[in-house]
Amino acid sequence: MAKGQIVAGALAPHPPHLVYGENPPQNEPKSECGWEVLRWGYESLRKKLDALDYDVLIVHSPHWRTQVGTHFVGVPNLKSKSVDPIFPNLFRFNYDINFDVELAESISREAATLGLDTTMMKNPHYRVDYGTIVSCHMTRPAWDKPIVSISSCGGASYYNMHVMQTMMSELGQATRTAVEKSGKRAVLLASHSLSHRHFRTEPSVPEDMSYEHIENHNQYVWDMKMIELMRAGKSKEMIEILPDFTEQTAAETDSGSLSWMMSAMGYPTRPAEIHAYGTVIGTGNVIAHWSAV
Ligand SMILES: [Fe+2]
Q1: How far is it, in rounded angstroms, from Cα 259 to Cα 135?
Q2: How much is the pTM?
Q3: Could you give the domains of the chain?
Q4: Which residues pair with 98 in a beta bridge?
Q5: What is the 285 CA–ligand 1 centroid distance (Å)?
């Protein structure tokens, strides 16, 4: 078997607004438009990833939160409706997802070998979280690649960001080892935005873009600092300032998705390609990818 490889990793934020703006047949609410810059950014990302001819998407999501340990979807198919708990008016998505259980089990085993607590999630009625669904849909709307779905643990709350990052560093190593043993070409997705302070009220027309801007300038400055490091190929430095970034911007980086992905990719020094930056209800979102080939 040929040696497997992580061919790319993408920061793939999951605001349900982006799926709402796309109007795919799976989503019940319909929009007129909205968040075009970010949606076009995803279109640009898709073109880049499509050229890599990959086999599997491995996604780490803040919205599948397992307080203790890391869980992996361990059933081959899940089909149901996902309703966003905050935005049921925007996201009621009928999904039918195939999972690469073999690769998930392999990552779980490798992570356990490194001392992490892991569990294979075998509940056939489990409802897939909307973070996983939105990031995967925007990256691969054809849904023709199997998914490895990984939970985020509560290490940042139970301990602190530094402990969580150490755990995600090990999960990243385990992911890389399992992918190499699998012979498959994998794309990693870290499913979250950057700054995450947001508005508390919604306009009567949710896609009215005259209301859309960053929640405050401080958040914007932090987002630009992160993007500057991405563009400079300074991923190690980016991960080192992540605890401060997370505290100052209430970011979902406390989930460890970006920390996991950077570790799995060996902390790339190649500059990330930035496809788009834009806000969703005031949160900062970047669509970026690191190519490994
Ligand atoms: Fe979120």
Answers
A1: 17
A2: 0.98
A3: 5-291 (3.40.830.10)
A4: 77
A5: 11
